[in-house]
Amino acid sequence: MLKTDNLTERRLRMAIWQKADLNEWLVLLSQQAKEKAEWRYWAAKEEKNEAKRKVDFESLAKERGFYAMLAAQQLGIVYQIPMLEVPELTQAQLELYANQLARIQELRELGQFDQARKIWIDWIKNIKPEAGENTPTKIQLALIKYAKDKNWYDWRWKVQFKQKPLIILICDYRMPIRIGSIYICKIKKSAKRLLRRLLVKKVRGMLRLNRTLMREG
């Protein structure tokens, strides 16, 4: 009996490919693995109790991601990507980062855009967490919003977040933002294209995995 999650997940994907029963493998997953969106989706699909099945899909559809979109499809509703609130820099943060922001502004006024951009990228990539709920991601988003508000639109940089990939909807940002492997730019017009890219990437990954499993089997 396979108890290691990665092996069990491989068997699950093989069962999905073969359209076989998944329950015998789903029960072998650890609690942590069962909480993944992927396996919550498939567990809901396998659920015989219609009421519980609907509740599980509704819960998943409120989240952000590929399987949340599929859950909405199962419910026959339009998937609405949850908006992520973009924070403002607090007065304390403005004071904390005053030197960096002033230096970047100075370089821009001198026309030294490449150097200003390099300082910005190096700085924002290495943001450290602050006290309370100010995670690096929240601080990075607040700084990006600050840059937008300062009309620094001529910068075409990519920001690499260290956290897991997220789809972040920041309307009216003209700067391409890289989050994991996803680029966000003028999101209102490109949301459908982003979702299509995610879907294609996910399907291709599953097909590659299934081909590998078939060869090993």
UniProtKB/TrEMBL annotation:
GO terms for molecular function: hydrolase activity, hydrolyzing O-glycosyl compounds; lyase activity. It is an enzyme of class 4 (lyase). SUPFAM superfamilies: Bacterial muramidases. Its EC number is 4.2.2.-. The keyword Membrane does not apply. Keywords: Lyase, Signal. The keyword Signal applies. One of its GO terms (cellular component) is periplasmic space. It comes from the Bacteria. This is Soluble lytic murein transglycosylase. It comes from Mannheimia haemolytica. The lineage of its organism: Bacteria, Pseudomonadati, Pseudomonadota, Gammaproteobacteria, Pasteurellales. The gene is slt_1.
